[in-house]
Design a protein that fits this description.
mainly alpha, Na+/H+ antiporter like fold, globular
């Protein structure tokens, strides 16, 4: 038995170094577990995530951490397609119909989530500057899960329009509030003194490190939108007279790849830039709907790989750490209260229909790459170098809190979102019938 086990481990180590084998295993196991999840009334993406967890270092070790890093291009492409899809829902005619409703709900849930998480962690003895940073990170959602669920249900209507709008605005709002909070916290923790060694004159000239961080966040948002807008216009012009499906797909994919790569290279937001490209496309001409339709057949395998790769990064062992578990649960509960309560309060102020008021908040629970990216950015920033050992330990705790939250919300968020979307669509039909009567 031991010899057989040794041979199996040797075989695993031999084939797991091949990227194609890892990719194939993620797709195959993801397919079967996705079908299994669907049979028990869970979204297929939950099965994809579990497949990644099973194949990753936390279980079988077939897909190593280094291998998942080499598959980063899949994640980048998936996020680009997801962001383009969300941007494609931002037609000016739809926004005009929605009016200020989407903006009010988005702002309300961002602010309430930030306050709830910051205060909750502070009450459990986390220093306020660090609690504020986690509060800002908590405002980010996972648009990938929302888009995948909506597309799998083939759902349309006012509820879906508002959901897409709020998810898109939420990512922009999360970047803004994180930039502002990080700037304030950097000043509080004395990051300016660390910057003095490398650029004290420049810092003083711009009015302090805090103002530089705020201006940096604003520039990132503006440049990302401009770059995406230019790319969207180029795609529109190049595809204007093309009717062949293959030609449209080649043009669109090529520019999505280029746009995403440029955004990463210049430290901009690929999400915002691709959203902007999608918004320009959908408003430039009604004919551009065909671009989005032609890209749809590519999304199932890319989405499956995207969520499976995300699953390989999850590590249930962090659940065994007492302080991480307690603070992580506080973070998860406070974030849920902020998201659901914020959407509800914003919908009440905006006088939204009951289908939106009662259900949309539950669609904001999934959390993934953006949150991990933000907390890892903190860990890699010059701020950490200026901190003492105790404060650096808090940064390590923050990273694990986010990983725990992502682990929990990636598994529970999608089924909750799916149930909320289905319920909202049923209520929407009832509201239409009442209005017709």
């Amino acid at each position: 038995m031991d010899a057989l086990l040794t041979d199996l481990i040797a075989l695993r180590d031999l084939v797991s170094h091949h990227g194609l084998f890892s990719t194939g295993m993620l797709l195959i196991l993801g397919y079967f577990l996705g079908k299994l999840a669907n049979r028990v009334k869970l979204p297929e993406i939950t099965g994809y995530i579990v497949a990644g967890l099973v194949l990753g270092d936390a279980a079988l070790g077939i897909v190593h951490h280094e291998m998942s890093e080499s598959l980063q291009i899949v994640t980048d492409v998936a996020l680009g397609l997801i962001a383009l899809t969300i941007g494609g829902e931002f037609s000016f005619s739809k926004l005009k119909r929605m009016g200020s409703e989407v903006v009010i709900i988005t702002v309300a849930q961002i602010l309430l989530t930030f306050i709830a998480v910051s205060l909750g962690l502070w009450l459990f003895k986390m220093p306020m500057p660090f609690a504020m940073m986690l509060g800002a990170i908590a405002t980010a959602t996972a648009p990938a899960a929302t888009v995948a669920i909506v597309q799998s249900l083939r759902a349309h209507g006012p509820f879906v329009d508002r959901l897409y709008g709020i998810v898109a605005l939420d990512d922009a709002g999360a970047v803004i509030i994180f930039g502002i909070v990080f700037a304030i916290v950097s000043s509080i923790l004395g990051a300016d003194s660390a910057a003095a060694a490398t650029g004290a004159v420049e810092v003083a000239r711009h009015g302090g490190g805090g103002m530089i961080m705020i201006w940096g966040a604003i520039k990132e948002i503006l440049f990302s939108i401009v770059l995406g807008g230019v790319a969207g216009y180029i795609i529109h012009r190049l595809s204007g007279k093309k009717n062949h499906t293959g030609e449209l797909m080649i043009i669109a994919l090529g520019w999505i790849f280029v746009l995403t790569a440029l955004s990463i290279a210049f430290h901009l937001s690929p999400l915002l830039s691709n959203m902007a490209a999608g918004m320009v496309l959908i408003n430039a001409s009604p004919r551009n709907h065909r671009i989005f339709r032609n890209l749809e057949p590519l999304t199932p395998p890319i989405y499956a790989l995207f969520f499976a790769i995300a699953g390989t990064e999850l590590n249930p062992a962090i659940l065994l750490q007492g302080d991480i578990l307690i603070l992580g649960l506080v973070f998860i509960v406070a974030r849920a209260i902020g998201k659901v309560g914020g959407v509800w309060s914003g919908a009440v102020i905006a006088k939204s229909k009951p289908s939106i008021r009662q259900n949309l908040g539950y669609c904001m629970l999934p959390q993934a790459g953006v949150a991990i990216g933000l907390v890892l950015m903190i860990q890699a920033s010059p701020l950490v170098a200026s901190l003492g050992p105790a404060q650096k330990e808090i940064i390590f705790t923050m990273v694990n809190i986010i990983l725990l939250s992502v682990f929990f919300n990636e598994l529970t968020g999608p089924p909750i979102s799916k149930a909320a979307i289905v319920k909202a669509l049923d209520m929407e039909e009832h509201e239409k019938a009442m209005e017709a009567a």
